[in-house]
User: Which sequence fits this backbone?
C-alpha cells in the first residue's frame, strides 16, 4: 500500500495570445467589474484547445485543460508529449513557478523542482559562495548545505576552482557545479526537466544515473523528456499530453508507443515531397517525387522488429545529363548523430534523360534495426558523388521510422541495430 | 477526438491505479483523510502571508544580503569605501550648489553636516524603493525556474539597505561628533530615542511602495519610467534641500505640498533629534506612521496576488 503524494485536480491554464498592451487593460477592467459583481470571469468561458498549427479565432488559449492525475509514493512518472503539448506548463504549475487558472494541486511532503541547473548563480561570486546560494534557492538550509558541501564538490569535480568566481568557469564546469548542488537535494517529490542533462556524454550519463538512483531509492520523481529510451528505462508510469489534454495515462510503454504514433499523424503526402519549396542543396537536375516506406507492399512508417523494411523511391529527371544517379540514405537517432550510413548505391552509371522517371526500392532485412524511432535522411546526386541534386532531411516533415516489438525479451528495447555474429562453443 | 480526452467524471481519482481488483481494494486503505501539506490554488486568501514558509527560507534571505554586499564591490580597488564617498561627495556638491550659490537656508547648521544628515535618511529610502520596485522584472530568470517565497527578495533588499544605512549613519555620527566637539551650535535632544522607530518606518515605507510598484510593473511597464525620474523629483518635495521651516515661514501657501509627503515627518524628526533644528510634530509623525501601515498592507496584498502568476505576464 502506498499513499498518494501528489494529486492534480482539474488543472487548467489559460494564456492570452498576442502582446500585452493597451488592449489588455480593457479586459482587465471588464474582468474586475464581473468579479466585483460576484460574476464569473467572462474570459474563462472562451478559449480554445491548444493546437498551435490551426489558426484560432479567440485571443485566449487553453494551454492545459482539465488535467487530473494522482502520483503515489515511489512512483516514477514520465511526462511526454510533442513540443507545445503543455509539458512545461504542467511542470511550472507543479513547481509553483506559476499557478493554474483553475483547479488545484495537492501535495504531501517536500517538493523540489529542477527546471534548470545553477539557478541564481552570481558570476562574481566564487564556486563555494554559489553552492550555498544555489542550495538555499532550491530550498536547503545553510546547515544542510554545509554538511553536504564536500560531497557536492566531489560530485562536481571542480574542486580546484571552488574559490574562483564562477565567471571564470567554462560553461561545462558551471553546469557540473549546478547539477551537483541539485543532486544533493533530498525532497520527497522531485520534478526534473530533461534540459538538465546538458554537458558532455560522460556528464549526461552521470545525470541520468543520478536520476535513476533517486528513483531507485523509492522517492517520487516526475520526469519530463523527449528521450523515449530514457523514459522507458527510468519511468514506470507515464502521462502523454496532447494539445494540453491527457491523451494517455498509465503504463509508460503504452504512452511511449502512442507518442511515437503521434508523429505519423502528420504524414505528408506525395505532393509535398514533390512540390515542396524548401529544397536544400539542390540544383534541380533530378528531384525526389515520392518516398514511401512499405511493409509487404503496404504503406506504413511503423514496422515490427521482424519485418522487412522497404523504401520505394521515385525520381523525376529534369535535364539531360551524363553524370548518372547516386542514391544515399542514412538513419539517425533523434538526439544524436547518424547511426546507419552504409546505404549508398549508384542507380544509374551514365545517361539520364529529361522527363524520365526512375524508380527503385531499397530493403533492410528483418531484425536489423532494434526497437526505437529513427529519423530518415535521403539524398540523390551524380554517380561520382560530386554534387547533390535533392535532399530530404529533417526539414521535410517526413514521418520518423518506428520499430516496435512484441518480443518480451527486455533487450530488444535496447541498442540501435543488430549485427551478424558467430558463436563457437568449445566443449 | 477532443471530447474523448476529457476526464470521465466519477472515475477520478487516479483511474489508472484502479485497473484491477487488487488496487481497487488498496484504495480503501488509502490515506484519503490524511491532511495535505500543501495545496496550490489559483486564488488564496489575501491575508495569508505564509510566514512559516518565509521563516524556513531565512537562510536564503541572509545569503541574498551577503551576495549583494560581496558582489557589488568585487573587482573595485576602494571597495566598501564607496559607501562613504557617495554621501560625502553628494553633500559637498549640495553645499556648494544649494547653500553657497543658491543661498538656501540650512537652518544655521554647517551645510556639510546638514546635508549628510538629510541624505543619510533619504538615500536609505530611495535605495530601498528603487531596488524593491524592480523585484519581479530583475529576478524573472530565477523566479521562472524555481519557487521560494518571493517576498524573500524585497526583504533582503531592505536588510541590505539597512546595513548600508548603518554604515552611512556611522559616517554621519563621525561628522556630527566633530561638529559637536568643535562648535556649540548643535542641540541634540531626547528625540534621538525615536531614531530606531524612524528607521523602521522608513524601511517599511520604501518596501511597501516598492512592492506595489514592482507588482504593477509586471503587466504594465509604465510605472518603471515614473520611478526613475519620480524619485528625483520626490527629493525636492521632501525636506532634504529646502527645510520645512523655510517653506512654512516664507512660502506658506505651498506648505501642504511638503506636508502631504509622508517622508517629511520622518526626515524632520531625524534632523531635529541630532541637530536641534527643524520642526518636530507628533501629528506629522503619526501621519507618516499611518501612511506606512496602509501602504505596506496594500503592498502585501498586491504582492501576494501577483507573485503567484506574474511569470505569465512579466
Assistant:
Amino acid at each position: 500500500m502506498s499513499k498518494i503524494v501528489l494529486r492534480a485536480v482539474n488543472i487548467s491554464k489559460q494564456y492570452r495570445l498576442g502582446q500585452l498592451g493597451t488592449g489588455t487593460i480593457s479586459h482587465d477592467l471588464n474582468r474586475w467589474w464581473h468579479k466585483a459583481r460576484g460574476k464569473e470571469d467572462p474570459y474563462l468561458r472562451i478559449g480554445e484547445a491548444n493546437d498551435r498549427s490551426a489558426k484560432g479565432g479567440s485571443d485566449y488559449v487553453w494551454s492545459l485543460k482539465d488535467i487530473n492525475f494522482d502520483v503515489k509514493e515511489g512512483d516514477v512518472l514520465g511526462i511526454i508529449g510533442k513540443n507545445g503539448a503543455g509539458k512545461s506548463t504542467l511542470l511550472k504549475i507543479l513547481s509553483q513557478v506559476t499557478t493554474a487558472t483553475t483547479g488545484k494541486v495537492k501535495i504531501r511532503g517536500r517538493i523540489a523542482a529542477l527546471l534548470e541547473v545553477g539557478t541564481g548563480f552570481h558570476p562574481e561570486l566564487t564556486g563555494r559562495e554559489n553552492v550555498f546560494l544555489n542550495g538555499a534557492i532550491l530550498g536547503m538550509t545553510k546547515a544542510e548545505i554545509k554538511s553536504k558541501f564536500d560531497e557536492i564538490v566531489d560530485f562536481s569535480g571542480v574542486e580546484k576552482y571552488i574559490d574562483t568566481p564562477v565567471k571564470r568557469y567554462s560553461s561545462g564546469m558551471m553546469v557540473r557545479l549546478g547539477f551537483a548542488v541539485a543532486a544533493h537535494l533530498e525532497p520527497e517529490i522531485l520534478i526534473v526537466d530533461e534540459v538538465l542533462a546538458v554537458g558532455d556524454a560522460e556528464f549526461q550519463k552521470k545525470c541520468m544515473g543520478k536520476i535513476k538512483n533517486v528513483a531507485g531509492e523509492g522517492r517520487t520523481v516526475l520526469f519530463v523528456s523527449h528521450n523515449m529510451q530514457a523514459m522507458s528505462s527510468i519511468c514506470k508510469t507515464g502521462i502523454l499530453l496532447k494539445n494540453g489534454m491527457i491523451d494517455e495515462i498509465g503504463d509508460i510503454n503504452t504512452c511511449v508507443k502512442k507518442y511515437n504514433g503521434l508523429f505519423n499523424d502528420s504524414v505528408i503526402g506525395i505532393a509535398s515531397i514533390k512540390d515542396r519549396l524548401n529544397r536544400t542543396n539542390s540544383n534541380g537536375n533530378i528531384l525526389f517525387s515520392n518516398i514511401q516506406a512499405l511493409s509487404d507492399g503496404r504503406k506504413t512508417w511503423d514496422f515490427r522488429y521482424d519485418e522487412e523494411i522497404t523504401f520505394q523511391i521515385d525520381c523525376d529527371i529534369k535535364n539531360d545529363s551524363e553524370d548518372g544517379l547516386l542514391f544515399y540514405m542514412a538513419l539517425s537517432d533523434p538526439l544524436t548523430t547518424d547511426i546507419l550510413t552504409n546505404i549508398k548505391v549508384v542507380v544509374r552509371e551514365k545517361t539520364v534523360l529529361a522527363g524520365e522517371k526512375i524508380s527503385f526500392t531499397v530493403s533492410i532485412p528483418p531484425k536489423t534495426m532494434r526497437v526505437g524511432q529513427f529519423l530518415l535522411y535521403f539524398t540523390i546526386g551524380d554517380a561520382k558523388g560530386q554534387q547533390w541534386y535533392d535532399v530530404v532531411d529533417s526539414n521535410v516533415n517526413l514521418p520518423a521510422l518506428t520499430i516496435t516489438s512484441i518480443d518480451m525479451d527486455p533487450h530488444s528495447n535496447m541498442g540501435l541495430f543488430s549485427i551478424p555474429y558467430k558463436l563457437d562453443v568449445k566443449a | 477526438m477532443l471530447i474523448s480526452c476529457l476526464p470521465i467524471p466519477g472515475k477520478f481519482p487516479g483511474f489508472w491505479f484502479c485497473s484491477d481488483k487488487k488496487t481497487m481494494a488498496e484504495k480503501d486503505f488509502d490515506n484519503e483523510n490524511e491532511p495535505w501539506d500543501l495545496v496550490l490554488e489559483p486564488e488564496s486568501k489575501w491575508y495569508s502571508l505564509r510566514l512559516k514558509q518565509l521563516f524556513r527560507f531565512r537562510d536564503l534571505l541572509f545569503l541574498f544580503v551577503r551576495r549583494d554586499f560581496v558582489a557589488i564591490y568585487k573587482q573595485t580597488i576602494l571597495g566598501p569605501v564607496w559607501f562613504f564617498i557617495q554621501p560625502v561627495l553628494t553633500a559637498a556638491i549640495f553645499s556648494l550648489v544649494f547653500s553657497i550659490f543658491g543661498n538656501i537656508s540650512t537652518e544655521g547648521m554647517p551645510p556639510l553636516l546638514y546635508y549628510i544628515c538629510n541624505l543619510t535618511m533619504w538615500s536609505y529610502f530611495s535605495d530601498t524603493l528603487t531596488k524593491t520596485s524592480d523585484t519581479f522584472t530583475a529576478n524573472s530568470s530565477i523566479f521562472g525556474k524555481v519557487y521560494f517565497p518571493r517576498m524573500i527578495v524585497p526583504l533582503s533588499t531592505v536588510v541590505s539597505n539597512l546595513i548600508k544605512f548603518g554604515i552611512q549613519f556611522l559616517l554621519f555620527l563621525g561628522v556630527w561628533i566633530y561638529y559637536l566637539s568643535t562648535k556649540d551650535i548643535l542641540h541634540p535632544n531626547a528625540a534621538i530615542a525615536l531614531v530606531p522607530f524612524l528607521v523602521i518606518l522608513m524601511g517599511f515605507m520604501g518596501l511597501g511602495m516598492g512592492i506595489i510598484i514592482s507588482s504593477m510593473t509586471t503587466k504594465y511597464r509604465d510605472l518603471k519610467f515614473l520611478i526613475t525620474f519620480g524619485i528625483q523629483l520626490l527629493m525636492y518635495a521632501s525636506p532634504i534641500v529646502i527645510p520645512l521651516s523655510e517653506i512654512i515661514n516664507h512660502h506658506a501657501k505651498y506648505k501642504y505640498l511638503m506636508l502631504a509627503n509622508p517622508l517629511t515627518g520622518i526626515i524632520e524628526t531625524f534632523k531635529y533629534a541630532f541637530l536641534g533644528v527643524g520642526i518636530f510634530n507628533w501629528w506629522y509623525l503619526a501621519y507618516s506612521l499611518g501612511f506606512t501601515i496602509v501602504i505596506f498592507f496594500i503592498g502585501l496584498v498586491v504582492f501576494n496576488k501577483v507573485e503567484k502568476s506574474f511569470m505569465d505576464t512579466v
Observations:
- Chain A has nine helices and 20 strands.
